[in-house]
UniProtKB/TrEMBL annotation:
Top-level taxon in the UniProt lineage: Bacteria
Segments traversing the membrane: 6-24, 54-71, 78-97, 103-123, 135-165, 177-196, 208-227, 233-250
One Pfam entry name: TauE
Entry keyword Transport: yes
Cell membrane recorded as keyword: yes
Protein's UniProt name: Probable membrane transporter protein
Location(s) in or outside the cell: Cell membrane
GO annotations of cellular component type: plasma membrane
Family: Belongs to the 4-toluene sulfonate uptake permease (TSUP) (TC 2.A.102) family.
Topology with respect to the bilayer: Multi-pass membrane protein
Length: 251
């Protein structure tokens, strides 16, 4: 059964995709922490491998909005410190993920999701105020972020740790992360088009149909970014994402 056939006959797939894309827009507008949730829903809707390419154009749309809206807050010195390591991780991830069978690819995504969840929980429970800023800290975190973003679009947990280590205020955090992900998502495009072949005319048509959801999410995110706190939804995201990750294995 082709992807288009599956989507035409599955209302649930469209609901999952629209919800994921809406949350993606909210995340890109400044409410960080939803990337794991987005990836899980899209993988459930479209399959693990296809969803990795399907999500990239939508992420870039959100990135364009974010870099325009938060551009004045961007701290380029931190991007230049972190970006080379992350690009190296993307290259490594492209090599690792190219020939993985679907079952192993699903397992890899689940592992990445749970690693990301673990990192988020660890950071939340960490009491120490001392965070290393040496390149030996940025290097491994950047490489891991690159691998995770290439294989499963799940670099958020690792980039969050790095930017938190730099003690960036909220707006600088969002603006700097926006440019970092815009650059890295553009860097990933050729691999998804020519190497993995997960971006096709068919997936782009699906992306076009999902654009209203991301635009609505972007507008919603801008309106609530100053009102909502992560504490209100963090536990919900962690629990639902863990359930979704397990469900990927049985899809």
């Amino acid at each position: 059964m082709t992807l288009s056939t599956t989507l035409e006959t599955s209302l649930i797939a469209w609901i999952l995709a629209a919800t994921a894309t809406f949350l993606m827009g909210i995340s890109k507008a400044g409410l960080k922490g939803l990337s794991i949730f987005n990836v899980t829903l899209l993988a459930l809707a479209f399959g693990a491998r296809k969803s990795t390419g399907l999500i990239i154009p939508l992420l870039i749309v959100g990135d364009i909005f974010a870099v325009i809206y938060y551009n004045r807050h961007t701290q380029w010195k931190y991007i230049l410190k972190f970006l080379p390591w992350m690009l190296g991780g993307i290259l490594l991830g492209a090599f690792i993920g190219k020939d993985l069978p679907e079952s192993e690819f699903k397992l890899g995504m689940v592992i990445v999701i749970f690693i990301s969840l673990g990192v988020l929980v660890w950071w939340d429970k960490r009491k120490s105020t001392h965070i290393p800023t040496h390149w030996l800290f940025a290097g491994p975190i950047g490489i891991m972020a690159g691998i995770c973003t290439m294989i499963g679009n799940l670099a958020g947990a690792f980039t969050n740790i790095f930017f938190l280590a730099m003690r960036l205020p909220k707006n600088e955090f969002v603006g700097t992360a926006a440019w970092l992900f815009f650059i890295t998502n553009l860097f990933k495009l050729p691999f998804h088009i020519f190497v993995w072949k997960t971006i096709t005319w068919e997936t782009l048509l699906i992306d076009i149909k999902l654009l209203p959801a991301i635009f609505l999410g972007l507008l919603t995110g801008v309106m609530v970014v100053k009102m909502i706190t992560e504490k209100n939804y963090k536990r919900f995201i962690l629990i639902v994402t863990a359930i979704g990750a397990i469900a990927i294995l049985f899809k």
